[in-house]
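Work Package 3 (structural annotation) set out to generate three-dimensional models for the target panel prioritized at the project kickoff. During this period the team completed the workflow that converts sequence records into discrete structure tokens, so that structures can be stored uniformly alongside our sequence database. As a representative example, we reproduce one entry of 297 residues exactly as it appears in the project archive.
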Amino acid sequence: MRLGVDLGGTKIEIVALDKRGKELLRRRIDTPQGDYLATVMAVAGLVEATEHELGQRGSVGIGIPGAESQRGGLIKNANSTCLIGKPLRRDLQAVLQREVRLANDANCFALSEAIDGSGCDAEIVFGVILGTGVGGGIVVRQQVLVGANAIAGEWGHNPLPAMRDEDRPAPDCYCGRQGCIEAYLSGPALAADHARRHGASLDAVAIARNAAQGDAACEATLQRYEERLGRALASVINVLDPQVIVLGGGLSNMERLYRNLPGCCAPHVFSDTVNTRFLPPTHGDSSGVRGAAWLWN
């Protein structure tokens, strides 16, 4: 039995999978806010309760909104700030008395879709998170690519490629830089772009809905978004050349992205054809927690 845990800022979710990937059980609890020790014990308690209910012991994989530093094993780059600088894996292993595997939540998303999801027939899968932030994960032959600095796939904190006049001034990013892909392509960034250009405060869901109903301003905002996303993903294609790019996060629910992205990417890809497929996730919001379980694949 494989246990996967998705440790998020507001919820902790666990799934139990059998060796074929069939779901045996799923539970979720609220994440203790700002309390590292309570978070560790909440994860451990969820694992132990699941094993007790199913009557068997499992491997444990954890997906987190950050990464484990290669120097010292402390958590870095986490938007759940109570985890930063803490030896999360070491502490969980001490409580659970077994090896624990830990990965970035975007890597878990990509792994899930590469194992038994939309990219299961692909050698290279790039998993994209388009939500409150912009993340990414790389899976090669069904193995997560971590990288020398544990940041493989973090395309969201590269500069937006081929900047145009309409992209300026470059917006600030929470990481301290300006003009990051995340600062253009996250859900809040889409809303901020619409407000700057059209003076209306609408969230991403409302912008997509209004565009579908013929609102010209919202349609223009989405066309800018798609064109920027195309430029950004073309840079990924030029480096990785994945067979499949799977889109996740709230913005991935816009069906128009899958129709329009190939054309938006094509002018920026160093090839006469673009054979990369842009696909929605098979497992939807469940991909992250399933991918954590598949860390023991």
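Residues 2-108+286-296 form a domain with the Nucleotidyltransferase; domain 5 fold (CATH 3.30.420.40).
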